[in-house]
Specification:
Elements (H helix, E strand, L loop, with lengths): L4 E7 L2 E7 L1 H14 L3 H11 L6 H16 L7
Antiparallel strand pairs: 1-2
């Protein structure tokens, strides 16, 4: 397992950063590619959908987990 690494993103024209482990970052990039979306567009969608109490990095991790559960045929989680 890796430690979180700060990564830069542009959300709706504004630069921001998130700290994600390499494993989550790779999965996030793969999911964006699978959907045919630029990474920044997917990040902006996740950002817009997250609640006020969740940070962007947490929202991305939860998104990755939910999408991988769907792919694995476990839409309600493992």
């Amino acid at each position: 397992m890796s430690r979180p690494v700060k990564r830069s993103l542009t959300l709706n024209g504004h630069r921001t950063s998130v700290s994600l482990e390499d494993e989550f970052w790779r999965a996030f990039r793969a999911l964006a590619a699978r959907q045919g979306l630029p990474l920044n567009v997917l990040a902006a969608e996740i950002d817009a959908a997250r609640g006020p109490d969740a940070g962007l990095a947490t929202a991305i991790r939860l998104y990755v987990l939910a999408e991988l559960c769907k792919i694995a045929g476990q839409p309600d989680g493992f």
